[in-house]
Every structure is written in C-alpha cells, then in structure tokens.
Amino acid sequence: MTGHVVLRAGTYSIRVARRPLVASLALVAAALALAFTALCFGASWSHPGEVLAALAGHGDSVVVVRDWRLPRVAAALVFGAALGLAGAIFQNLTRNALGSPDIIGLDAGSYTGALFAITVLSGTSAQLSVSSVAGGLAAAAAVYFLSLRSGLSGMRLIVIGIAMNAMLTALNSWIVLRAELEVAMAATGWSAGSLNGVDWAELVLPFLVIGALTLLLVTLSSGMRQAALGDDLAVASGVRLNLLRLLLVLAGVGCTATVTAVAGPIVFIALAAPQIGRLLAGTAGVALMPAALTGAVLLLAADLVAQAVFAPISLPVGVVTTVIGGGYLVWLLVRRAGRT
Questions:
Q1: What's the CA dihedral at 320, 321, 323, 325 to 10 degrees?
Q2: Structural domain boundaries of the chain?
Q3: Which pLDDT score, from 0 to 100, does residue 130 have?
Q4: Are β-strands 12-17 and 4-9 bridged in parallel, bridged antiparallel, or unpaired?
Q5: What would you measure as the largest C-alpha separation in the chain, in angstroms?
C-alpha cells in the first residue's frame, strides 16, 4: 500500500503516508475492541449493554466496571504505550532491534531503585517513583559511559547492557534475600509485573508523567528522524545531537521507570512493540506512533490472557509477556540468522 493522504482541519493540513495511517487506525480499533472485551470480562461476564450502561453511570455494575475494571484497562493501554515508546527510543538510539530497556539493564536498574525504596525507605508511592527513575538513570549512565567508544550505537552497547542487566538482576536477588520475610515476599510478587488491584488513585500521577513525556517526544520527533539518517546529516541540518540524545534517554527512562514504580517490571513489551509496529506500518525506521499503539494492544491482550488462563485467579501480566517475549526473541534471532 503506497501513497499519501492529506488530513485537513480548518486552515491546517498534514500529509501522512497511507500505510502507517491505516496501520495506526487498525491498532486503535484493536485496542478499543480489546478494551471493551476487558470491561466485560471479570469474575463474571457482563453483558455489553450492561457495560455501556455502567460507563454512562447507570445500572448495578457501575462500581465493578468504572472503579474496578476501567482503571486496569486504562493502565494496560497507557503503560503499554509508554513501554512501546521507551523501546522505540532506545532502538532508534542504538539502531538495533535488541536495544530495549529490558535487555540493556534499564528495567533492572529501575527495579533496583524501587527495591531500595521498599526495603530501606518506607516504600511510599512518591519514593517508589523517584527511586525507580534514579535507578533507571543510573543504569543508563553506567551503560553509556562503559560504551563511549561507540556512543549510543552498535553491538558494544547491547553487549554491555546485557552484562549490566545480569549484574543488576543478581543485585536485586541479593537485596530480596537479605530483606525481611514479609518485605521479600511483597517484593518478589511485585517483581513479576502485575496490574492486579490498580485503582484511579495510584494512576493519576503516572498518567500525568507519561503524558508530559509523550509531549516531549512529540517535540523531539523531528530531530529523532533526522538522527536516524546519520549523525553527519543530522548535525548538518541543525540537530544538536548530544542534547537530543540526553532528552531521549531521560524520556525513555522516565517511561520505563514510571511503569515499574506502579506495576513492577513488565518485560518484553518494549522489545517487541517497536519492531512489530514497524512491520505493520512499513516504515524504514522505528516510528513512535505505531510502537506506542502496538505496545498498548500487546499489554492489554496479555493482561486479558493473564486473567483468563486460570480464572478466577489472575496471573501477573509479566508472566504472560515473558512467554510472548521469549517466543518473539527466538523468532527475531532465527530471522536474523536467516539473513546471514
């Protein structure tokens, strides 16, 4: 599917490629269908008419639908989009499909920061958020400085990131083993990555942070596209590469750490969503919009599976994303091996 479409709103118009537009609309439709299915699904199945009435504030299922199920659906969509954006950022920076926060140690660093808040501090929401961001930034800084010879690109950074991820995972295990039993049990359960029990009160601040980071990425998207064409061309077109990369790293770590602070480390969405979105949209590089929409669809679908497999017991969504991500990683490696 080739060609472009011109979208107009009053005196403003924008020219977009047809295939990415169609892919994005299809992903939005899939997300809406999954969201409505998730609102119907629970301990008992709710009739679609009953769900629509509850969303309008009528009927006996208002509390169940609007206060219990809707926050979980919203969290899956927003957190999935945030992880998709984080993956797109780092895959663009490293120019490698393996350049994902959960592969190069940023997720593990955010989890280390969160464990510090849980085991040393009192573990409040604010402490979890700040510590997660600090841990992720520390891991990103360590990976960057250890791979200065190649900047933020190449297999060197990926290999160093994998080593950093292994070391931080070992550190996290040590922290959990040294903690008191109740704290260790809570930290271990939380480390699987779960949307169980989320409510509106704990989602307001993360949604605001992710919204602000998304706006930042919108302003950086033009420079990001120029940088994808090569450093020399980007500098010649006026892009300040060092500042751009710093802001992108901050945005990527912020997205990952915000999700980790609320739901724990949810792995492989950031790895798979950008590449699946790129294949669907047919873009040369990793585009932000398809990556975000694909991440939202993947996480919501995984959460539905997590609720349905052993219903009425709900699994942590991270268990399902690990299975999906493992299969994706095998496929990616086989696909790359076939090209050589």
A1: 170
A2: 21-27+68-339
A3: 84
A4: antiparallel
A5: 63
Per-residue confidence (pLDDT) for residue 222, from 0 to 100: 79
CA–centroid distance for 149 within its chain:
28
Going by pLDDT thresholds of 50, 70 and 90, the confidence category of residue 83 is very high
- DSSP codes, 146-172: HTGGGTT-SHHHHHHHHHHHHHHHHHH
What pLDDT score was predicted for residue 73?
93
User: According to DSSP H, which parts of the chain are helical?
Assistant: 18-40, 48-55, 62, 70-94, 106-119, 125-146, 155-178, 181-191, 204-228, 231-236, 241-263, 269-281, 288-308, 317-339
Q: 312 preceded by cis ω (within 30°)? A: yes
Picking from 263, 208, 259, 290, the residue whose alpha carbon sits closest to that of residue 106 is 259
Strand partners, 5: 16
Question: What confidence tier does 153 reach under pLDDT thresholds 50, 70, 90?
Answer: low
Rounded CA separation 228/143 (Å): 21
- Kindly calculate the radius of gyration of the chain based on its CA atoms and give it in whole angstroms: 20
CATH topology for the 21-27+68-339 domain: ABC transporter involved in vitamin B12 uptake, BtuC (1.10.3470)
Position 189, amino acid: G
Asked if pLDDT for residue 277 goes beyond 60, the answer is yes
- Its pTM stands at 0.88
**Tokens at 63, concatenated:** 């509390």
Distance from C-alpha of 292 to C-alpha of 295, rounded to nearest angstrom: 5
Segment 309-313 mean pLDDT: 76
Burial state string for 299-334 with b = 16 or more CB within 10 A and e = fewer than 16: bbbbbbbbbeeeeeebbbbbbbbbebbeebbeebee
How far is it, in rounded angstroms, from Cα 82 to Cα 277? 14
